[in-house]
Amino acid sequence: MRTKTLLLTAALVVAGLNTAAAEQHTENGGNQVFSVNAVGFVNVEVAPGFSMIANPLQAEDNTVASLFSNAPDGTVIYKWDAENGMFAEPNEFVFGEWSKPDQELKPGEGAFINNPTDSAFSITFVGEVMQGTLENELPTGFSMKSSMVPQSGQLQADLGFPATDGDVVYQWDAENQTYLPKREVLFGSWDPQQPEVSVGEAFWVQNNTDSSRTWTREFSVTN
Description:
Shape: globular
Strand order of the largest sheet: 5-11-6-9-10
Strand content: over 45%
Order of helices and strands: EEEEEHEEEEEEEEEEEEEEEEEE
Number of domains: 2
Largest sheet: 5 strands, antiparallel
Number of strands: 23
Oligomer: single chain
Helix content: under 10%
């Protein structure tokens, strides 16, 4: 299983992760307690038109103004308000400034981004790989989600998504500017197949149960 894939090349996303492990220890009755942090960068290519994008690293500043400072003029970000079942006000990059600079895009979330130019541009995410017990809420109905770690693979088998009968996942095809065929959980299996997710890719989750659930993962770069 591809449970620790932190370097990949895909059609939509080209990602590179440099990890630096920093060990710190304290003496406690003769025992040493170690912590390992993995920091680096991920380059995500944004194709012309619409894409669904995610922030795969925990940055010091997860605001749109910080994460997307080099976007071309006219770029627009659309975040989904799951609580109210609608998109929030569009966040536009005009004359070098975002209309909502303090809007955040945290690991595990997702958004649509519209590149108004005829050429792809690259966003470099810089930050720390999230580790430990990671919890991503899946509210009832529609929500935009992503992996909380920079890892590619099958959504359930590799990324630990808690698939439940009735769940539907929709992925965006940036090259053709349309949705891929939906992936649905029926009788415990994905129909027609399990979604394959790339680093920096967001997707729609339709939770058709009567209550919210939590996508929980235990993750460590050392395991």
